[in-house]
Amino acid sequence: MSTDRRKFLKHLGTSVLLTSASLNSFAAKQENEVRILRDKKRVSPNDKVRIATIGMGIMGFNDTRAALAVPGVELVGVCDLYKGRLARSKEVYGKDLFTTMDHREILERKDIDAVIVATSDNWHSQIAIDAMRKGKAVYSEKPMVHKISQGLEEIRVQKETKAVFQVGSQRVSSIAYRKAKEMYEAGAIGKINSIEASFNRNSGLGAWQYTLPMDGNIQNVDWARFQATAPPNEKHDFDPLRFFRWRNYREYGTGVAGDLFVHLLSGIHFITGSKGPETIFSIGALDYWKDGRNVPDVMSAVIQYGETKEHPAFQVTLRVNFVSGEGDYGTTKIIGSEGVMDLGGEGESFSIRKNHITDAPGIGGWDSLETYPEAEQKKLLAAYNQRWTKAQQEAPKSEPIVYRAPEDYSANIDHMTNFFDAIRTGKPIVEDAVFGFRAAAPALACNDSYFQKKVIRWDAENMKLV
Question: Which of 171, 188, 210 is the C-terminal boundary of a domain?
Fold first, then answer.
């Protein structure tokens, strides 16, 4: 029996966690009850947290809904560079809501404790730094930076100001990922050696061809502010495609790597305890969605993690396909010497399938045995059976383990709850600036590798390119 398997069995003992049914009912119920107690707790007026959201696009509205699902959170204002979204915010959250097209007006308000930064990627870092220097807590959408060069400065400002800062990759707060991490650390799949993670999509909306408003013109959009972070040679005349579908353009977004690879890496780093990889290489193509975008719609990356005190060496393959006949589907498969952990969706479930290597090497079947004379085969079989017992020739069998979060569970709300708990109580942040950058940088390095056509080397400990 391997050391990892002994560790796993010792950890679980005779616990009901050994069966798929009990994982689905007992463990999920237990953690859900804790979440309900936490989310429904009474909040005193002194514990109220007043927030503003900067960037009221898809993620801005989603993050705001999740934040307001946490008791004691109040929305004071919003900022967006399109007047239509400011009008929509008043429709949803009330005519007295403060709205502005200049994020600095949000940061100057004394009645705002925290901001959600859900702008285009090119503004994440600057607004977060401005907010921390104004004494605001910051919930920053991923990736926390648009360029790798911005990361260390943002971390420095967070440490200097001691501001509460959390990155918005909800998998890090998921009860399913927490349970998966516990079982991984207990040796449930043996010694890790590789990970396969992917996102598939097969629709216009999935490929970021978002609906354009009829009044999305230069009179209703602050185009100059939108592209103010770009160097002169990357500035463009007003284009509604670039503004409303900014994810498709390098000047404002980070493509599939910064938008989706970073989710996968955040979950991988959380479960394995890794600080990051050593080498990154990616390839890709603009295969189908030739709508003016300048980032690929199919991308694959091979990322090598070296051996550290946190984990053995392992390889990660990442893939995004925006024209996949498989449809909308994502998975992360963590593969070890004794099994595979398959994490589906955005943090709602996982399964573990065991597949042990037998002590005996095997004989017959797809083997050279049948190519030898019959007398030689008989001698070899007799010697094999004398050398190896029946138990050594058979792999241990075990039922798959399945874990599912309750139907009404939301990792987004849990992630927001963790953020507001940190503001109220000083509880440690679950995804701080260092963790967020260590997930973002290798994802952005995939873009560098693709566009520069070379292997990128990364110093994960010191968070810098080599």
Answer: 171
Calculate the CA 12 to chain-centre distance.
28
Portion of the chain with pLDDT greater than 90, in percent: 85
pLDDT (tens digit, 9 = 90+) per residue, 161-201? Answer: 999 999 999 999 999 999 999 999 999 999 999 999 999 99
Domain count, the chain: 2
Edge-first strand order for the sheet with 192-200 is 401-404, 349-354, 339-344, 329-336, 192-200, 314-321, 298-305, 279-285, 456-459, 464-465
Cα 289 to Cα 296: distance, rounded to the nearest angstrom = 9
Residue 375 lies in a domain: no
Three-state DSSP at 383 gives helix
User: Ramachandran region of residue 187, left (φ > 0), alpha (ψ -120 to 50) or beta?
Assistant: left
Domain that holds residue 115: 38-171
The phi, psi pair for 315, rounded to 5°, reads -115, 140
Is the domain of 222 the same as that of 270? yes
For residue 192, report the phi and psi dihedrals to the nearest 5 degrees. -65, 140
In this structure, which amino acid lies at residue 13? Answer: G
Beta bridge partners of 73: 49
Per DSSP, the residues of 336-360 read: ESSEEEEEETTTTEEEEEE-PPPSS
Instruction: Determine how many CB atoms are found less than 10 A away from the CB of residue 59.
Output: 17
Taking the C-alpha atoms of residue 73 and residue 418, their distance in angstroms, rounded to an integer, is: 13
| Whole-angstrom distance, CA of residue 2 vs CA of residue 11 | 14
State the residue for tokens 């996102």. 199
**Cα–Cα dist 129/154, whole Å:** 6
pLDDT, tens only, 68-103: 999 999 999 999 999 999 999 999 999 999 999 999
Give the HSE-up count for residue 278: Cα atoms under 13 Å, Cβ half-sphere: 9
Q: What is the DSSP letter of 212?
A: P
Q: Please, what's the b/e burial string for 13-46 (b: 16 or more CB within 10 A of its CB; e: otherwise)?
A: eeeebeebeebbeebbeebbeebeeeeeeeeeee
Cα 296 to its chain centre, rounded Å, is 20
Which residues have a Cβ under 8 Å from the Cβ of 408 and sit 6 or more positions away? none
Distance in Å from the first CA to the final CA of the chain: 41
What CATH number has the domain bearing residue 156?
3.40.50.720
> Quick one: 141 and 17 in the same domain?
no
Look up tokens 């960037």; give the residue: 55
